[in-house]
Give the backbone structure.
Amino acid sequence: MTAQKKSRVLSGMRSTGKLHLGNYLGALANWVGLQDKYDCFFFIADWHALTTDYADTSAVKQNSLEVMLDYLAAGLDPERSTIFLQSHVPQHAELHLLLSLITPLGWLERVPTYKEQRENIKDKDLGTYGFLGYPVLQSADIMMYKADYVPVGEDQVPHIEFTREIARRFNGFYQCRGRAVFPEPQPLLTPAAKVPGTDGRKMSKSYNNTILLSEPEASVRQKLKTMVTDPARVRRSDPGNPDVCPVGDLHKIFSNQETLAKVDAGCRSAGIGCIECKGWAADAMVTRLAPIQQRRKKYEDNPKLAWDILDAGSARAATVAEATMDEVREAMHMSQQYSPPAPGAGGSGGK
C-alpha cells in the first residue's frame, strides 16, 4: 500500500537573536508537535529582519545562528523537518520580484500590521519599498513550497488571506500546462499561551521584558523577583487575586496543579507573600527550561554542527524551490528552455 502523502506546513521566524518564552509558547512548541503529522518546512527569515534593521546588518548572521540554536534546542529535528535560512535559497528573491509585479499597491497599504508598525516603531525609518512590500516576500516564502497550511495565531490570519489573494491573482493570469501553479494556503490555528513579560505586558524584545530560552537560572530568578504583581496588593497582609496578576499567569502556564492550588489559596487569603509566589514560579520555569538549555549547549559548544544542519536544510529547500520556479517561469513564458512554435503559430516560438 502507498503511504498517504503528508500535507505540507511552512513557517518561520525573523533573525532577531535569541528567542524568548513568548516565541517558544506562541509558536515554536507548536511547530515541534507538528513534525510527525506534516511535511514541515521551517526557516529563519534573515531577509525579513532587514526590512526594519537594514541600516546595520552586522548582527544578522549571529542572530540567525542564535535562532537556529533555539530551534534545535526546542526540539525541531532535521530528520523530520526541513530547516533552512531564507537568504540561502535565492529563489525566494526571484518569486518575490515576480509576485510584486502583479500585487496592487492598495493591497499592501491595507495590511493591518503595516500602519501598526509604522506608528509603533518610531526610532527607525520604515518609509521604504522593502518594508511596504514585506507581505509579498512573506507570500513568496509560503507559495514557494506550495504549503497547504501555515501555523499562526488568530492575529496573523490576515497575512494568510493576503497570500491566498496573491495566489488566486497569479493563477488567474498564468497557468502551467493548463493547471494552476499555486494552491491557496490555509491558516492552521494553533493554541498559543499569552506569556506576560516582566512588566506585565506581552513578552516582547521591543519592551525589554523578556525571559530567554537560554536565560541562566540566576537571571530567571532575579527577573521574576522584580516582576509586577496584582496592583491592588500593596502590603503583605493584603489579599490578592492571581487571576489579574502576571505572576499568576505564569503559574497557569508552568506550574502543576498542586502549586496552582497553593498559589490560588495563599494569594487570596494573604497566606503567602509575592516573593514566595515568584519563587515557586521560578522553580517551575527553570524546570521547564532545563532540557531545552541542555540540548542548546550541545550546539553552542560546536556551532558548526548547527550551520551544517542549516546548510543541508537550505540545499533541500532550494531543490523544492527550483522545481516551483521552473513551473512559474514556464507559466509566465520565461522558461530558459527553447520551445519550438506549434504548427501554424505565429511569433518566434521562444519562451
Remarks:
- The first helix runs from residue 21 to 34.
- The CA atoms of residues 174 and 331 lie 5 Å apart.
